[in-house]
Design goal:
The chain is α/β, with parallel strands linked by helices and 261 residues long. The protein contains 9 helices and 11 strands. Strand 7, helix 8 and strand 8 form a beta-alpha-beta unit. Helix 3 packs parallel to helix 7. Bound molecules: magnesium ion.
């Protein structure tokens, strides 16, 4: 993950989105259309995500801290996560029944695969962002300390979704733009949060530095498809977790803290 520490413009633009969203907040997962990079690939989400600004990467910054805190400490985010997780479960279950069969062996044999992102999808780093000074900014040093200490909170809705997929028999691939250097810490931390049994866990190394996260993740999904995987769904918290194809359906968990292209 290469989050920018620059946030001033983002804060101003994001504030208008969040304030507008507050009066229309609803607990339901619905179709999301973030633009041409996902043409032809449906995304279901809560709408509680930051908008893309050009092709930048940003953290929302301290200006919006009260609104972000209210969302993360209130009931709305729990309901939004539950709604998106339920939509993902139903979509994958129904696809698998129609295309693979009903036993885990049959599902495995047809190579049905779900891709999960990690940060803000399986693990929640709200306590990191809120503790920074200024709040909701990013600092690589404090970030690495946070990861090494496994100070993440869990996200029960996606943990349960993940474990239901494992039982269903689908292949699970974790595709994360987090640094490969942190992989031992992440593996240990995911296990502490009762997330285990994945088939692949792909993280970013130095060699892929000139690609955006969206391009890099699409390339990794393409690699899985070329190995015979059928990527039924990609579950993430960024549109860049589900851009540029090589998946049937994206499921977008809420993240109002930062945007990654
Ligand atoms: Mg993420």
């Amino acid at each position: 993950m290469r989050r920018s520490v620059s946030f001033a413009l983002a804060s101003v633009l994001a504030s208008s989105m969040l304030v507008a969203g507050a009066s229309t907040a609803q607990a339901a997962a619905f179709p999301v259309n973030p633009g041409p990079v996902v043409d032809g690939r449906p995304i279901t989400g809560s709408g509680q995500n930051l908008p893309p600004i050009d092709e930048s990467t940003y953290n929302v910054g301290p200006y919006m801290a009260p609104q972000v805190e209210a969302y993360y400490t209130g009931k709305a985010i729990q309901q939004d996560r539950a709604d998106v997780a339920l939509a993902a479960w139903r979509w994958v279950r129904d696809w698998v029944r129609a295309n693979c069969g009903s036993t885990p062996e049959a599902v495995r044999a047809c190579r049905a695969t779900v891709v999960f992102d990690v940060d803000e999808t399986l693990l929640n780093s709200y306590t990191y962002s809120v503790a920074q000074d200024p709040q909701f900014t990013f600092n690589p040093t404090t970030w690495n300390e946070y990861v090494a200490a496994c100070d993440y909170a869990g996200i029960p809705q996606t943990r349960d979704l993940y474990n239901r997929f494992i039982k269903l028999g689908v292949y699970v691939a974790l595709v994360s733009a987090g640094s490969k250097d942190n992989k031992p810490f992440m593996v240990k931390c995911l296990r502490e949060h009762r997330i285990a049994g994945w088939d692949r866990y792909i993280m970013r190394g130095e060699a892929s530095d000139d690609l955006s996260d969206a391009e890099w993740k699409a390339l990794k999904r393409k690699g899985l498809v070329q190995k015979g995987h059928r990527i039924v769904a990609s579950v993430g918290d960024q549109v860049s977790d589900m851009s540029y194809g090589h998946l049937l359906h994206g499921f977008l968990m809420p993240n109002t803290m930062y945007y990654l292209h």
